[in-house]
Here is the input.
Amino acid sequence: MRTYHVSRVEKIKSMPTFKYTAKEITGKTVSGILEYSDKALLIDALRKKGLVIISIEETAKRRAMSFGGSVKLEEIVIFSRQLATMVDSGIPLVHALDILCEQIEKPVFRNIMAKIKDDIETGSSLSDAFARHPAVFSTLYVNMVKAGESSGALDDILDRLAAYLEKSNMLQRKVKASLVYPAVVVTMAMLITLVMLIKVIPTFKGIFEMLGGTLPLPTRILILVSDTIREMFLYVAAALAVAVFALKKYMKTAQGKENFDKILLAIPVLGPLFRKVAVAKFTRTFATLVKSGVPILVSLEIVGKTAGNTVI
Here is the structure.
């Protein structure tokens, strides 16, 4: 099943994108961006919807990652709650998505919803339509929606998803807020140390040379470090940049990510905090999936990918 979804996503990404403008029977002008394999098929699909086509032009292909960067978690939460309310009220799914498309302000998210509505109209399930946009709807989201479709409790699942995403977002904000102060302190300490090595120590070096005498070993080492940084500042900065770049590349590998997560858990003060966050995320996600009817093995596989720490 996983291979099927990947192939479908790759197929959709390869389709050309068309921007259209048309008029409804009521005279209302509508526009949007859709992906179709052929312009003639798009024209035929729009005419079947009763639209009078004004213009259709092919647009430049957008990168898939732009979806993930543009759609915020808060927007997905609001969408899930609104869709759950409409489904619970007995509004047909296609009609509910059509209403939500008109309410969504961001063009990127609105276009994604339009594509999902078109997929459902052509016979796809809601979970399959969501699975075609993995940068916006995670594996957890898709599997919970699939479980809701199978059990007939889609409105409860969507409401539960919205609550889960809200709690996860709140937890992330608390963690980030707790890390702001240590990050500021460390940054200021590094800046102050750098200023002292570049500006302050050379001044004292001149005073010591005027007074004469033999300086203690720690003072001589400090002056040597200061002279080295001042004379080879560009080389030191370049070396640090290369080291940071190499570290980021290494962290993207499976072994590098695992080693970095081990170091995070071993940090004296912040390690227990990271461990509690990962365990809390694991338990909340696992409970939400099992309660929604997702099989345990599938739930464990999803939780393993979304725990936020490879060691956990």
Summary: The CA atoms of residues 183 and 274 lie 15 Å apart.
